[in-house]
């Protein structure tokens, strides 16, 4: 991966965790004593019984190793495997990755029969569910305050529709064959970190549990005037699918590699997930993930003054918070000690049409 970083914006509804104490994966963060290429890293991994999954954040010193002889989750560290790596003459340190839990942000589905059809169709996108997307154009159709919306039509009128911008949806996958998304899908910028392949398609479940990422993608870049569902807030933009939220646990390497994936192709990283809202779960990014965020801040904000946002419940002086409002202007989500505040709509919108 190239070491040069492109300006990007990291959007997050909340990025905290529920602790999964004493859970360890079969993934290892290996740091070499010097820079090595992928072939040499592969040789070192193979002679120690591991598989090299590639560099971490484009580094030539840090690599992601997996041992397929270990269970994907266990309650004790594998001391013997750690020792084997550490005695290798080329390896400086090796850290077995602990597992932790990430939870998708919830939403409140709305019933079509409770909504009022009172938007002028000839002035608006012709997509059938646009009239229910109060956060794009709020006429009080859901009983909320009229005109309390994103005022996005003013931006559209100026030709600001997201063209040439790619947003990475870091989630449980994206249905990139959906007719409302397929023409706005950026395959080159996409990857599946849950299965380690370039096809971030959601894993099927009977209850549509893994439709969250597709819904988020629809809110961003669903096509306009195609007679399907609703319209994205940036309907001329591209979306990349980064599947990283569909495994029994989260690891620091999965999060870091997701947030650092293809920075030369991706402009915005969207992470719409967090902890159960129990008021007591407080956590933040681990070592590699924090380095991915800090690198984006240090290497990009200094050159372009672009914005990176997050909602970690920690002090992030240069990182901004993202929160939510519902149709009645009530604040939702969390607050962080940052300089700016960015608010977006609660997912209790008809964006749920992109299931």
TrEMBL record:
Transmembrane domains' residue ranges: none
GO-annotated molecular function: serine-type endopeptidase activity
Peptidase S8/S53 domain: residues covered: 162-289
Superkingdom of this protein's organism: Eukaryota
A biological process from GO: peptide hormone processing
Leader sequence residues: 1-20
GO CC field: extracellular space; membrane; neuron projection
Keywords: Hydrolase, Protease, Serine protease, Signal
Peptidase S8 pro-domain domain: residues covered: 27-105
Keyword Signal belongs to the record: yes
Similarity field: Belongs to the peptidase S8 family. Furin subfamily.
Name of this chain's protein: Neuroendocrine convertase 2
Species, as recorded: Brassicogethes aeneus (Rape pollen beetle)
């Amino acid at each position: 991966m190239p070491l040069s970083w492109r300006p990007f914006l990291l959007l997050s509804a909340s990025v905290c965790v529920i602790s999964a104490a004493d859970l360890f994966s079969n993934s290892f963060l290996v740091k070499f004593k010097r820079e090595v290429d992928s072939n040499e890293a592969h040789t070192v991994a193979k002679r120690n019984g591991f598989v090299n999954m590639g560099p971490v954040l484009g580094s030539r010193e840090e690599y992601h190793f997996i041992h397929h002889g270990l269970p994907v989750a266990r309650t004790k560290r594998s001391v013997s495997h750690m020792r084997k790596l550490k005695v290798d003459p080329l390896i400086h340190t090796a850290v077995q990755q602990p597992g932790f839990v990430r939870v998708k942000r919830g939403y409140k589905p709305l019933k079509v029969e409770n909504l009022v059809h009172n938007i002028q169709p000839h002035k608006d996108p012709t997509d059938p569910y646009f009239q229910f997307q109060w956060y794009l154009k709020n006429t009080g159709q859901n009983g909320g305050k009229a005109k309390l919306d994103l005022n996005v039509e003013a931006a559209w009128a100026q030709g600001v529709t997201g063209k040439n911008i790619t947003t990475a949806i870091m989630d449980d996958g994206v249905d990139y064959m959906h007719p409302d998304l397929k023409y706005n899908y950026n395959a080159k910028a996409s990857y599946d970190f849950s299965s380690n392949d370039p096809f971030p398609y959601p894993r099927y479940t009977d209850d549509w549990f893994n439709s969250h990422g597709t819904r988020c993608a629809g809110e961003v870049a669903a096509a306009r005037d195609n007679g399907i569902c609703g319209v994205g807030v940036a309907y001329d933009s591209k979306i990349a699918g980064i599947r990283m939220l569909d495994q029994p646990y989260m690891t620091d390497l999965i999060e870091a590699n997701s947030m650092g994936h293809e920075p030369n192709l991706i402009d915005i990283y969207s992470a719409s997930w967090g902890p159960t809202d129990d008021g007591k779960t407080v956590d933040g990014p681990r070592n590699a993930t924090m380095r991915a965020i800090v690198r984006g801040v240090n290497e990009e904000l200094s050159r372009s003054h672009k914005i990176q946002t997050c909602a970690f419940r920690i002090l992030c002086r240069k990182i901004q918070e993202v929160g939510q409002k519902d149709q009645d202007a009530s604040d939702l989500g969390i607050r962080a000690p940052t300089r700016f505040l960015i608010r977006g709509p609660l997912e209790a919108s008809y964006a749920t049409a992109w299931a």
